[in-house]
Amino acid sequence: SRSAGIVGLPNVGKSTLFNALTGAGAEAANYPFCTIEPNVGIAAVPDPRLDALAALFRPEKTTPAVFRFVDIAGLVEGASRGEGLGNQFLHHIREVDAILHVVRAFDDPNVTHVFGSVDPVRDIDVIETELILADLETVGRRLERTARQAKSGDEAAKKALEGLERLKAHLDAGRPARTFPAGEEEQALLRELFLLSQKPVLYIANVDEASYLDGTPTSHVRAIEARAEAEGAEVIVLSAALEAELRALPPEERSAYLAAYGLEETALDRVIRSAYRLLGWRTFFTAGEKEVRAWTIPAGARAPEAGGVIHSDFERGFIRAEVVAYDDLLRAGSLARARELGLVRLEGKDYVVQDGDVITFRFNV
Ligand code: GDP
C-alpha cells in the first residue's frame, strides 16, 4: 500500500502526529498486506465519494483505500555515519513513497529543543544534510564501480560516469537529489540508486494550537514556507497536539469543533490529499452488493494495471472493463439506470483509468 515516512529532529512532534494520523484509523488486522510494527500505522483515506457510493449500493462492507504512515524516529546529526539509530532509520526511509518532514514551529519552554532554540530552517537543513550524506555514500560507491568498468573499456560505463559525477557535485553542494536536473539517462540512473533525498517531500509546520486556530502565519511558518518554495515543495500547517485531541473526540463532536473554528477538515485529510497530489495518485472504485471499495493507482495507469491492484488474475486475464464515471453514476441513481442511459462504457486494455471511475472488470481465469 501507499506510504509516507514521518521524519524530523527529536521532540518536534513526530510521534504526536503519527498517533493523530493513525490512532483512530482503519483496523490494521483487516489489511494483511501491511506488516504492522509499532512505528507503522495505517489510516483510511477519507473520500466522500466512497460514502455516497455506499449509500447507493448498501453493500455488506465498505472499504476505503488505506495509507501507511511510518514514524521514523532516531534521526539525529550523524545518522548517516551510523549514530543514533543511524542505518535502521535510513533503511525505513528507503521503503516509503514520500516523506513528511515535521518541523517544529511552536515555542514551548516546557518542550526541550535538541539545539536549545526554535529555528525551523536550521532544523530542515540538519535533516536534509543527513539524507544527502547518506546519498553521497551510495553515489560514491557506484562511482568507484563505474570508474573501474570505464577504465576496462566499458562504453556504457564511460557514459554513465559523467552523469554520476554531475550528481555527486550536486549533492556535494548540499542540494537534494530531487532537485537534480536529470536528463533521460540520468533519470534511469536515479531510478536504480533509490536515493533518500530524491523522495518527494511535504513539509509539516507544527505550530501551537493558538496560532493554528488564529490562522495568521507566524514568522516560523513564513520561514518554512520560503524554504519550501525555493524547491517547489508544499507546506502543511497544523498543530499535532490539537490533531491528537481532535482524534480522541467522537466524530460528531469533532465536526462541531472544526465548524466552530471555521475549519473544513482535519489535518489528516489535508496530509493525505496533498500526498495524493504530490505523488500523482488516482482513485477508482469497485461497487456491488457485497462491497464498495476505493483503490489507489498511479496517474496514467491503464485498465489492466488497475485491475492488477485488485488481483493479479484481473490483469493477466483482462478482457475488458465496464466503466462509469462517478458523477454519471450518482446522477443516474443506479448502475442499471446508468446502463439504460448509455453512461456505462466498455473499455479495452489501452483505456487510461480516470479518477473517480467506477469499474467492473471482465477477465479470464
Ligand atoms: P518526536 O520526538 O518528534 O516524536 O516528538 P513528540 O511527538 O514525542 O513530541 C515531543 C513533545 O512536544 C511532547 O511533549 C509533545 O506533547 C510536544 N508537542 C508536540 N506537538 C506539539 C504542539 O503542537 N504544541 C505543543 N505545545 N507541544 C507539542
From TrEMBL:
<dbReference type="Pfam" id="PF06071">
    <property type="entry name" value="YchF-GTPase_C"/>
</dbReference>
<keyword id="KW-0067">ATP-binding</keyword>
<dbReference type="InterPro" id="IPR006073">
    <property type="entry name" value="GTP-bd"/>
</dbReference>
<dbReference type="InterPro" id="IPR004396">
    <property type="entry name" value="ATPase_YchF/OLA1"/>
</dbReference>
<keyword id="KW-0460">Magnesium</keyword>
<dbReference type="InterPro" id="IPR012675">
    <property type="entry name" value="Beta-grasp_dom_sf"/>
</dbReference>
<dbReference type="InterPro" id="IPR027417">
    <property type="entry name" value="P-loop_NTPase"/>
</dbReference>
<feature type="domain" description="TGS">
    <location>
        <begin position="279"/>
        <end position="363"/>
    </location>
</feature>
<protein>
    <recommendedName>
        <fullName>Ribosome-binding ATPase YchF</fullName>
    </recommendedName>
</protein>
<keyword id="KW-0479">Metal-binding</keyword>
<dbReference type="GO" id="GO:0005525">
    <property type="term" value="F:GTP binding"/>
</dbReference>
<dbReference type="GO" id="GO:0016887">
    <property type="term" value="F:ATP hydrolysis activity"/>
</dbReference>
<dbReference type="InterPro" id="IPR031167">
    <property type="entry name" value="G_OBG"/>
</dbReference>
<keyword id="KW-0547">Nucleotide-binding</keyword>
<feature type="binding site">
    <location>
        <begin position="11"/>
        <end position="16"/>
    </location>
    <ligand>
        <name>ATP</name>
    </ligand>
</feature>
<dbReference type="InterPro" id="IPR041706">
    <property type="entry name" value="YchF_N"/>
</dbReference>
<dbReference type="InterPro" id="IPR023192">
    <property type="entry name" value="TGS-like_dom_sf"/>
</dbReference>
<dbReference type="InterPro" id="IPR004095">
    <property type="entry name" value="TGS"/>
</dbReference>
<dbReference type="GO" id="GO:0005737">
    <property type="term" value="C:cytoplasm"/>
</dbReference>
<dbReference type="Pfam" id="PF01926">
    <property type="entry name" value="MMR_HSR1"/>
</dbReference>
<dbReference type="InterPro" id="IPR012676">
    <property type="entry name" value="TGS-like"/>
</dbReference>
<feature type="domain" description="OBG-type G">
    <location>
        <begin position="2"/>
        <end position="258"/>
    </location>
</feature>
<comment type="similarity">
    <text>Belongs to the TRAFAC class OBG-HflX-like GTPase superfamily. OBG GTPase family. YchF/OLA1 subfamily.</text>
</comment>
<dbReference type="GO" id="GO:0046872">
    <property type="term" value="F:metal ion binding"/>
</dbReference>
<dbReference type="InterPro" id="IPR013029">
    <property type="entry name" value="YchF_C"/>
</dbReference>
<comment type="function">
    <text>ATPase that binds to both the 70S ribosome and the 50S ribosomal subunit in a nucleotide-independent manner.</text>
</comment>
<dbReference type="GO" id="GO:0005524">
    <property type="term" value="F:ATP binding"/>
</dbReference>
<dbReference type="GO" id="GO:0043023">
    <property type="term" value="F:ribosomal large subunit binding"/>
</dbReference>
